[in-house]
Amino acid sequence: MNPFVQLNNVSKTFDVSAPWLNRVLERKPQTFLHAVSDVSFDIRRGETLALVGESGCGKSTVARLIVGLYAPSQGSVTVDGQDMKSAAQSTDASRALRRKVQMIFQDPYASLNPRWRVADIVAEPIRTHKLITDPAALDKRVAELLGFVKLTAKDGEKYPHQFSGGQRQRISIARALASNPEFLICDEPTSALDVSVQAQVLNLMKDLQREMGLTYLFISHNLQVVHHIADRVGVMYLGRVVEIGDKREVFGNPQHPYTRMLLDAIPDLKMTGKARTPVAGEVPNPLNPPAGCAFNPRCPKRFAPCDQSRPQTVSFKGRDVACFAAQEATP
Ligand SMILES: Nc1ncnc2c1ncn2[C@@H]1O[C@H](COP(=O)(O)OP(=O)(O)OP(=O)(O)O)[C@@H](O)[C@H]1O
Ligand SMILES: [Mg+2]
C-alpha cells in the first residue's frame, strides 16, 4: 500500500529581507531563511511518526507543508496519493484533503472560539463540509463525538472557558474528528498540559487511533511523550532530518550524535539510574548556518570531513542517518 504521506526532497525558504527601500538604500542583499532543507520521509497508513528537535528546527513548517498551508520552495509533498501542488489548483481536491487531514495545536485556548458553545465548535467542520444537514442527526453526531473524547452531550452547552486545559484539548480532538479525517497532525498537542493530564490525552489519542485507524504526525520536543506515542521517530536539526527510523531502533541504539545528546538529556527511559547530561551548546542562527554538517560545532564526534561537506543520508542499522562519524563507525 502507498504511504499516506510522502515528502520528496522538500525545502522551504522564507524571504526575511528588510523592506525593499531599506535594502536598496543600505545596499543589502535579499536574505533567505532555510526553515526546511531537503527533507524526505514517508508516513504509512495507521502509524504515528513523531518529529522531534529543538525549537526552530522546522517541525511546524513541515506540518504546514503537509496540510498545504505552505507550498514547498523545492520538492514535492504527496498526501493520500495527491500531489499537494496539483491539489491546490483544484477546489474539489483541496476540499477533500481539508476533510481528510486535520490539525491539532498546542494551545486549545487560542484555537477554540471563546464565544461559541462547544457543540457549535464541534459541529463546525460538519457544517463546513456539509456532511450532515438534518439538525437532529447533527446533534446526535456531536454527542457521539463528545463521547469519543469522554465528554457528555451536556458539555456541548458550555463554553470553552468552563473547561480545564486537558478537557479543552479533548474538545479540539472532537472537533478534529468531526470531519471523519484519516490523518491528524498534532503539533505539540500536550505541551501546555500537566504531566498527568498529558498522559490521559496521549492515551485517548492512542485509543482513537486504534479504533478509527487514524494516521498521526506527532510533533513534540518531549522525548518521553514521543517514546509513549510514536511508532517511528524523525529527529530534526536546523531544518534537516538527521536520523529517522523505528522508535525502538532510534531510541534503543541512536546513531546520530544529536539523537544521542537529546536522549542523554532526559530521565532514563529504562530507569537504570544513569545520570543525565544536559543538552550542550546552542542551535546556530539559521540565517548563518555553519559550513558542512550543521551540527558540527556542537558535536562530540566531529572529525575532518564534518566542516567540509554535508553528510548524505544513508540507510543502515534499520534507519536513515546523515552523519559522517556514524557512517565511518559502521563497517
Ligand atoms: N513565516 C515565517 N517567516 C519567516 N521565518 C519563519 C516562518 N515560519 C518559521 N520561520 C523560521 O523557520 C524556522 C523553523 O521554524 P518552525 O516554526 O518550523 O520550528 P519548530 O521546530 O516548529 O519550532 P518550535 O519547537 O519552537 O515550535 C525558524 O528559524 C523560524 O524562525
Ligand atoms: Mg513549532
Describe this structure in words.
The chain is α/β, with parallel strands linked by helices and 331 residues long. The protein has a single domain (5-283), classed as Rossmann fold. Helix content is 36%, strand content 21%. The chain has 13 helices and 12 strands. The strands form 2 sheets. An 8-stranded mixed beta sheet has the order 6-7-8-3-9-10-12-11, sandwiched between helices. Helix 6 packs parallel to helix 8 (165-177) and helix 8 runs parallel beside helix 9. The longest helix has 18 residues, at 195-212. It is globular. The relative contact order is 0.13. The protein binds adenosine-5'-triphosphate (ATP) and magnesium ion (MG). The site of magnesium ion has 3 residues, from helix 2. Magnesium ion (MG) binds at residues 59-60, 187.
Which features characterize this protein?
13 helices; binds magnesium ion; Rossmann fold; 331 residues; eight-stranded mixed beta sheet; binds adenosine-5'-triphosphate; alpha/beta; four-stranded antiparallel beta sheet; 36% helix
Which residues sit in consecutive blocks of at least 5 with pLDDT less than 50?
Answer: none
Q: For the CA atoms, what is the radius of gyration?
A: 21 Å
Q: How are the strands of the largest sheet arranged?
A: 6-7-8-3-9-10-12-11
Beta content comes to 15-25%
The bound ligands are: adenosine-5'-triphosphate, magnesium ion
Write the H/E string, N to C: EHEEHEEHHEHHHHEHEHEEHHEEH
| Alpha plus pi helix count | 13
Tell me about the largest β-sheet: 8 strands, mixed
**What would CATH call the homologous superfamily?**
P-loop containing nucleotide triphosphate hydrolases
CATH architecture: 3-Layer(aba) Sandwich
Q: What is the averaged pLDDT score? A: 92
Q: Shape, please?
A: globular
CATH class: Alpha Beta
Q: Give the total of domains.
A: 1
CATH third-tier fold name = Rossmann fold
Structural class comes to: alpha/beta
Query: What's the number of extended β-strand segments?
Result: 12
Helix residue percentage? 25-40%
Separation of the first and last Cα atoms: 33 Å
